[in-house]
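Practice problem. Given the sequence and the SMILES for zinc ion, write out the predicted structure.
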Amino acid sequence: MTWPMVAQLPKSTPVVIPIAALEQHGHHMPVFTDSMLLGEVVRRTVAALDDRVLFTPLMWLGNSHHHMDFPGTMSASPRVYLDLLIDLAENMLTHGFQRILLLNGHGGNIVPAQQATFELRQKYRHRSDLLLLSSTYWTLGGEPWTKAPSLQQRRVGHACEYETSMMLRIAPHLVRNHTGAQEMPFGNSFEPAHRAWITKDRTSVGHIGHPSVATAEKGEAIFQTFSQDVIQLIERMIRWDGTSWEG
Ligand SMILES: [Zn+2]
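Answer key:
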């Protein structure tokens, strides 16, 4: 788009900023996995929503310091990443937009994305017309196993049955011998406390979960489920009446 095209959009147009990562994904998947998978969710979402929503380019750099023991990972440190997200969202507030979604595709970005929108809301506390959201595509309530009953995992791990299936669906030539990858358990959760961890505390090979049972068919079911969740969330942003989030 040209800048006059952006300028002509209604200021109530939701702006979606996709945020992902470049980090290790085990022995069998490329470091660009999170950006590729979120890119596919975004592609399907754009196809459904068309010009009712403004999508920015996907931000490939994420907060992946917990993966830095694995070569190839590139990461913005947590505070740098927080400031980056605040700037990206605030750029669009400066241009007059009122409804912003940080659409996330990487676990390490969840807390920074929530903090970024939290801090912006405090800064713009005098405004009553702002809708500042962050969301991760696999946490919107979708249950892909209802479409693909052979799915064994009931939650997303890392380079796992879910992510490997999705990559097999969009770029099978980039998946290397996933059927030989052993299952890596999720491990002790330390609940109800939140344990600070780095990835090598939990896995020596880099993946967590069960990649060997991944298939492209499961990947298609996962993409359909999660893309539909994202479309429904953004349609609620379009319908937002300025007060209630219901309906
Ligand atoms: Zn991932």
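Check your answer against the key. Residues 102 and 134 are 5 Å apart (CA to CA).
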